[in-house]
Amino acid sequence: MGDQPAFERGNKCKDELYGSWWNDYEALYRRAEAERRRAEELRRQAEEREAEEKVRSQPTTLGELIKGVLQLKYIYSFCRESEDAKLCRGVDYLQKMIGDLQVVCAESTVQLVEDL
After folding, report:
1. Residue partners of 71: CB distance under 8 A and separation at least 6
2. Which residues form a coiled coil (predicted)?
3. Distance from C-alpha of 80 to C-alpha of 31, rounded to nearest angstrom
4. Residue pLDDT, tens place only, 15-69
5. Which residue has the higher pLDDT, 56 or 3?
6. End-to-end alpha-carbon separation of the chain, Å?
7. Is the pLDDT at 104 greater than 60, yes or no?
8. What is the DSSP letter of 4?
9. 101 Cβ partners below 8 Å, 6+ apart?
């Protein structure tokens, strides 16, 4: 009676089958988890590149706004010296434009701070 009882042999086969299935499942899970981590890393890197791109474009936008404000300031100072009614209306318009640009500059500054 050196043989194992039938129920022990059956359990051993069942354990081997289950163990094989479990090993396959575990390997598949590990691969899926590794792929998920890799996808997460790629997403994070893409977000960083996008944020860097926004930060790089902000100074250009702010520089353009500053240049526009300086041009308006120059035109405003020129027009202010004149007594012509059209130029006075132009000065009023430029004052409004300067105010609008100040708002845009403030919003761009806030956005830049948020992007950083």
Report:
1. none
2. 22-56
3. 72
4. 565 667 667 777 777 888 888 888 888 888 888 888 777 766 665 666 777 777 7
5. 56
6. 78
7. yes
8. P
9. 65, 68, 69, 72
